[in-house]
Structure prediction request, 604 residues.
Amino acid sequence: MRRYVSLFAQYFIQYAKVRLSYRGDFLLSVLTTVLATACGMAVVFLIFQHVPRIAGWSFTQILFLYGFSLLPLSLFNTISINLYYFSDSYIIMGKFDQVLLRPVNPLFQVLSEKFRLEALGDMALGLAIVLSCARALGLRLGVWEWLFIALATVCGCALYTSVFLMLTSVSFWMEDRVGVVPPIYNMLAFGRYPLDIYGQFIRFLLSWVVPFGFASFYPTAHLLGKDAYRAYAYALPLVTAFFVLAALAVWSRGVRNYTSTGS
Amino acid sequence: MPGHVEVQELVKHFRTFERREGLWGALQNLVVREYKTVAAVDRISFEIRPGEMVGYIGPNGAGKSTTIKMLTGILVPTAGRVRSNGFEPFRERSRYARTIGAVFGQRTQLWWDIAVVESFRLLKKIYAVSDADYAARMREFNEVLEIERYLHTPVRKLSLGERMRCDMAAALLHNPPLLFLDEPTIGLDIVAKENIRAFLKRVNREYGTTVLLTTHDLSDIEELCPRLMIIDHGRLLFDGGLAELKRQLWRDTTVKFDLKDREQAQRFEQLEIPGIRREKLGDLTYLLSFGRDDRPTADVIRQVVNAVEVLDIAIEEQSIEEVVKRIYLGGMSPEAPPCNP
Prediction:
């Protein structure tokens, strides 16, 4: 474990050094990422010009949810970038060969070989929104609340990663780009709004099939004192554990099935 | 045992589907796919002892790389058994990976965007190499491979030869007892080739490192490997020494005679030696070929020299390229025993 932590640090520093050496490019990426997020938020502002509440949620509460959802999402975006390109750069280009040659967990290597550093800008933005909305809502964030937020962030990130890891693993069996990835990617946005506004079907989908609701909605609802969802918030670690284990199982089946490239 | 490889009845099947051509074909592909199973490696068995350097050759698509990938733990065998360095490569991959080195000539093991030395530092950490060992190893690599000059260059800016030197060093940073090389000299100029070979010889001599290498350049084999294995269509065709291969396949001896003058040439043409093929190369130059098991070469030479005046005699060696080409083209002929027991 300690070895992996120090390896992760080394990988991360290594990558950051390369990335930061192209300063202009990096700064621009941070700017566009934060800008894209701000545009998404503008939608919330627009809607609340016309209605005071949606499904029992006030403007500030929804903004709080939005900010909170950025925490696990930005962490996920930072570390998962290689899952997105896995099929192209590791399977088709055959880079997975060298991963398997090293005495380190293959998944760990894939995740740590590349990061999307600029996504950490969203993390800062998310924290700022959470803090200011909490003040506006008169929400006291003590040690326990912050521990809960940290746990929910890590669990949420693990949930996102698990879902995309399963999808990524499909490329061990099918060389073709998996067409289902972009739609699921778009579903990430669903978790930014209260599940109450969706119909039964989507609510079920976001809770138990593609559990993005657990990554942002349920923990936020709990923090906002909406008791109906408390049980869900407490189930978060269990749901996370289940999806992580399932994803790891699919992944290792995939690794066994890896066929490498021609030469 | 470190450096020991044992392979029994190893098989790897790949399932591929036939892609139909054209737009209509592509649409058909969407609906129905006809799969077929190809045996890339078909019941191969061999053993490599610690400290051996073995060449593994065969035409493109023969199954060389697939074998290496199973031996390094990248691919899971369809059937058969591999025991290498005391491990079962795929099942115990992580622990096994610490005990082997591998270089794939077509692809670098180093990180593309970072300086070579940073790659080395990362590998040092991955393989848990101590500072002292690392320093000693780098000094040693530098003596032969002269890598110090481009340690601070990103890998993508290196030439193929420079990159290969660095890859070689990277594979041996943790001083593994067993080294796999898949076409390590591909695309290299003669100087770089020599350099890599010298390095391999030295590593093998000093540390007793076992080496299995695939190549298309048979001079690699001649210089490095006392033993070679030939594979084609997934089957092992030959396993033995170079000399033995030549003995088995080199069935004709050819002797070239330079004669003194035209008169001698005329007498030479009338010479009757049964079972001999005669070929005229120039005015005064002739080739005689005969089955090497039919008669001793010395007899033939004596007969000729007794009858005509000869200026020069040369016994023509068949090159290993020709021998191997014959195997690739026609397989081993039935007269030669196919494979050592």
Summary: Chain B has a mean pLDDT of 87. The first strand of chain B starts at residue 5 and ends at 17. Residues 251-317 of chain B form a domain with the Alpha-Beta Plaits fold (CATH 3.30.70.920). Residues 190-207 of chain B form the longest helix (18 residues).
